[in-house]
């Protein structure tokens, strides 16, 4: 599998380099020609380190996997800051793009001590390759759908609105990248262990679903409610137009946390083909929604992007319901309940916006976070079964720490 992952990474990197003239023509920005090879290096490094990550997960060395991820980001960020301080400008960011995956490969290679063997026939990899092709195809569709808005906005509205959208998208992607990937590495082996022990996997999966959705909704509720003061405070007043975009994308970010367990459900049930079919249905709808939104405004494109994520979640749930081995209805109800509570928290801050405007920026951020999260937790706990829901999430957190 190491050689297959490396080959795929090499092919993707080569395809990206070969598409350089098309990308430059699309954005009308000749300087991209020098930046694209850095992104290609990142794709190649990602293929090289994939098997190292799998080896660490199989060995249940989750802390090591998390530490290498953090270490790689720190190395890349430190390099970018040093280069920017030395006057390299945009090239500092280009080096950061390439440095993070390269550092991750080096750190995980040293930690896992996994040395690949020469490829050979009869290694019983055909089922793995087939499943990998299904998951890879689904991920490719997901990548295309997620980036369709960026391409369309750049082509329709130009560089400045694209920069605002890109910054808002990066901010909303940060919690997902920080939580979902590492948690997946822990959750899948844990659920497989429970299945081998003959325990109720669906109950455990639903509790983990509650935990990760609650975590995501909490983060995005706090971020979206405080965004009118937090973004100008951190990024500067010039980024104030990105507030509405960020809030619209935050809704999709919360839904993406709720949808994470669907991906786990496909993997646990060896239903990767169903995953691919589901994405073949949902992702084109997402792209059409974004296209319609882009024609109106950048904010509408952000709303359409979040709506597309919701469509994908619902499609995945319907596909999983056919398997009769995944709690689709319960998962949907829990997700809607928590997301609605988060939306109520954000709405409460919107009602108090004029009052919060009188406070200093830092005070307004603090007040917005406290008010929104208090309303969110109140909405969860006062409804029937609210405390039971929280207890289940807490138990799943304890289980994953073991």
Automatic annotation (TrEMBL):
<keyword id="KW-0812">Transmembrane</keyword>
<feature type="transmembrane region" description="Helical">
    <location>
        <begin position="245"/>
        <end position="268"/>
    </location>
</feature>
<feature type="transmembrane region" description="Helical">
    <location>
        <begin position="332"/>
        <end position="353"/>
    </location>
</feature>
<feature type="transmembrane region" description="Helical">
    <location>
        <begin position="359"/>
        <end position="382"/>
    </location>
</feature>
<feature type="transmembrane region" description="Helical">
    <location>
        <begin position="62"/>
        <end position="85"/>
    </location>
</feature>
<dbReference type="InterPro" id="IPR050833">
    <property type="entry name" value="Poly_Biosynth_Transport"/>
</dbReference>
<feature type="transmembrane region" description="Helical">
    <location>
        <begin position="301"/>
        <end position="320"/>
    </location>
</feature>
<feature type="transmembrane region" description="Helical">
    <location>
        <begin position="91"/>
        <end position="111"/>
    </location>
</feature>
<protein>
    <submittedName>
        <fullName>Lipopolysaccharide biosynthesis protein</fullName>
    </submittedName>
</protein>
<comment type="similarity">
    <text>Belongs to the polysaccharide synthase family.</text>
</comment>
<dbReference type="GO" id="GO:0005886">
    <property type="term" value="C:plasma membrane"/>
</dbReference>
<keyword id="KW-1003">Cell membrane</keyword>
<feature type="transmembrane region" description="Helical">
    <location>
        <begin position="204"/>
        <end position="225"/>
    </location>
</feature>
<keyword id="KW-1133">Transmembrane helix</keyword>
<feature type="transmembrane region" description="Helical">
    <location>
        <begin position="275"/>
        <end position="295"/>
    </location>
</feature>
<dbReference type="Pfam" id="PF13440">
    <property type="entry name" value="Polysacc_synt_3"/>
</dbReference>
<feature type="transmembrane region" description="Helical">
    <location>
        <begin position="31"/>
        <end position="50"/>
    </location>
</feature>
<keyword id="KW-0472">Membrane</keyword>
